[in-house]
Amino acid sequence: MELLTSLLVFLTSGLLFHDCRKLDGYKFPVYTTKSCPKNVIDWNRTSSTFNCSKESSYACFPNNEITELIEMCYPLRNIIIPEGTCLYLSKTRSELDMYDCSRRFTYGCPEKQYLSSSIYRYPSCSSIRDGCFDADPICNRTKKNTVKDINLDEEQTDWTLIAAICVPLIVVLLVIVIILYIRIVIILYIRKKRIQKQEEEENNEGVYQS
């Protein structure tokens, strides 16, 4: 049963990463994500899935253009963020840059220093849309909207392709899990029958000797 449990954990992790898209142009692996962890439970689960080394830590921030959220194992054990600041990842340098939200956000700007591992407490730093933070009313989204409209058909095509790949993969993985489960049950049943038969033979031998 331990084998089945390990397999399920592995498949769950694989499906989680399959929902992401690896990005090029960074000095370390970076993946897109629909959202950053919303609470400490989500954070611990996702961080465990990434399984970062001791010299790095799981992180989730907007990209350089504030157009999508990305997650990674950032090469720093503890990421300390000053008050009044959100972070984003610069693609040219693969380093974190600061965004001064104290003068731009109408709500949700961190009022004290915090760690990246508690960014879920400040959802405004990961709530983005069309190249802007949602809490920033000054940001101009017009140009970003135009680009988004132009690329709408391309994005729909990409999601269709992803669905065509994901669905068969998920079906195959489920079939493998079911087959392995059935095999484990059969093996355990056969083993139990053998033990019962041995015990019966031993009991019979004891009767004959007496």
Topology (SSEs and partners):
Blueprint: H1 2-18, E1 22-23, E2 30-33, H2 40-50, E3 57-62, E4 69-74, E5 80-81, E6 85-90, E7 95-100, E8 114-115, E9 128-129, E10 132-133, H3 142-150, H4 152-209
Helix pairs in contact: 1-4
Explain the overall architecture.
With 210 residues, the protein is of the alpha+beta class. The protein has a domain at 21-139. 45% of the residues lie in helices and 18% in strands. The protein is built from four helices and ten strands, in the order αββαββββββββαα. A four-stranded antiparallel β-sheet has the order 1-2-4-3, covered by helices on one side. A two-stranded antiparallel ribbon has the order 5-8. Strand 6 (85-90) and strand 7 form a beta hairpin. Helix 1 runs antiparallel to helix 4 (152-209). The longest helix has 58 residues, at 152-209. It is elongated and about 90 Å long. It starts with a helix and ends with a helix. Mean pLDDT is 82; it is low at 3-18 and 144-154.
